[in-house]
Write a structure and sequence with these properties.
8 strands, 39% helix
Amino acid sequence: MDLTLNGDQSFFQETTRRFLESEAPLTRVRELADDPNGFDRAWWRRGAELGWTALVVPEDHGGGTLSGRPCADLAIVAEEFGRLVSPGPLIPTNVVAATVARSGTPEQRAEVLPAILAGEAVAAWCVKGPDRGWLAGDLGVEARRDGDGGFVVAGTATMVEAAGSADWFLVSARSADGPVQVLLRGDTPGIRVTRLGGLDLVRRFGKVHFDDVAAPGAAVVGGGPGDGAADDVGRQLRLGAALEGAQMAGVADRVL
């Protein structure tokens, strides 16, 4: 793979770095250490104007890439985030945006993507259960069929980044027929968030509890079980892992 940046990517990297250095220096990051969300919403909206939330969303849904390689473009931002210990729900929000753009219904795209692209909505991904792994066959939350295409969601997802500030949750759940994903508002009845402690100054994680939450058919992303949810979960894991790796590369570059 050719990792050399083209002109547009280099300019984007420089712009992102200058913005982070001026707007989120380490003094500001330390001030956010006790903030329950770890970032400022107004600041995040300004980052969205630079394109941080649009790179993995196709142009026909309001996004666009610099090079035609969305993950590589977004990795530029992730590396700068790691380099400067920058705040903001970069990884979870983009993972959810990419999935909604790819597999969401027209109604889901119309309702969720504009707010994410504008930096007005934060999204989190619920995938890992307590004492479970990260794979599509090892999900901690359960979805039981209920009515015409709907589900009842129960269980707990842990290590959910931006759980306490999420406006939307993408929930990967197991069902009798295979993995299924549902998109739920953060204020849906039956959803509770327990914040988790951590050493990171700005990234916030939590447990999300689902107490028999009703997820209608309109909330299902990518069709029912067996209609590609497992493939979507795999894509989400790969994107998240790539972005985490880019952040760590930025950290290593700064430290060394």
